[in-house]
Amino acid sequence: MPKTIIAEGKTTAEAISNGLKELKVSKENVDIKILEQEDKRSFFSILAPRVVKIEMTLKEKEQTVIREKNINKNQDEIKKAEVKIEKFLNELIEKIPENEINYQIQIKDYIVYIDMYGKDMNYLIGYRGEVLNSLQVIVNNIANQNVHDKIQVCLDIQGYRNKREKALQDLAEKISKTVMKNGKSITLEPMNAYERKIIHTHLQSNEKVRTYSIGEEPYRKIVIAKK
């Protein structure tokens, strides 16, 4: 299955540049399709952020190259990263003596997956996963100290990420139906890039609505509008 992403920018060139940075490839290695380009702007929308949205698909040959690169990735670096992650998690758990917290580390497709579980762990998840996301950033930084190839780390607590993804997909479905019914666009609350991507991806095949983002981080929001 070809790898496809949705990229955005204020111009087509910026959207393409953002997509290439995310895939870490050059332009000749991708197929590009412009999904949304706000060229026609009314007087009342002149102050609104201009958004260009593109679909970028990695060519089959380049996917093969990336897979071969992953296969050849230094196993020692991943093992060292695992040791560093374990040291950090053990020290973190020692500082929370009242709770019984356990974790499991698995390496799959050269990605380090960490599952933490125990009782009353909502404080480590935080409001809409804010604490969990901060912990993941810290663990990623620890894993990637003094490594040649970037190591991806995915941290989850009590299966929160799957639950949150399902909740966001349900929200996207509900809001899209409202937009289709009354024809008025709806702006959602600010979300991080990971959560925005879930909604963009879920609705990208919907032929009756479109999605785009407005605002600056960390207050960037998704708009769901009728096509």
Strand order in space, largest sheet = 1-3-2
Strand and helix order: EHEEHHEEHHEHEHEE
What's the domain count? Answer: 3
CATH class of the largest domain: Alpha Beta
Total helices: the number is: 7
The pLDDT mean sits at 85
Helix content, binned percent: 40-55%
Task: Spell out the CATH superfamily of the largest domain.
Answer: K homology (KH) domain
Q: Report how far the terminal alpha carbons are from each other.
A: 27 Å
Beta-strand share of residues: 25-35%
User: Which ranges are low-confidence, i.e. pLDDT below 50, for 5 or more consecutive residues?
Assistant: 40-47
- Counted beta strands: 9
Structural category: alpha+beta
In the CATH hierarchy, the architecture of the largest domain is 2-Layer Sandwich
CATH topology-level name of the largest domain? GMP Synthetase, Chain A, domain 3
Instruction: Report the sheet with the most strands, covering strand number, pairing sense and barrel closure.
Output: 3 strands, antiparallel
Shape: globular
Radius of gyration: 20 Å
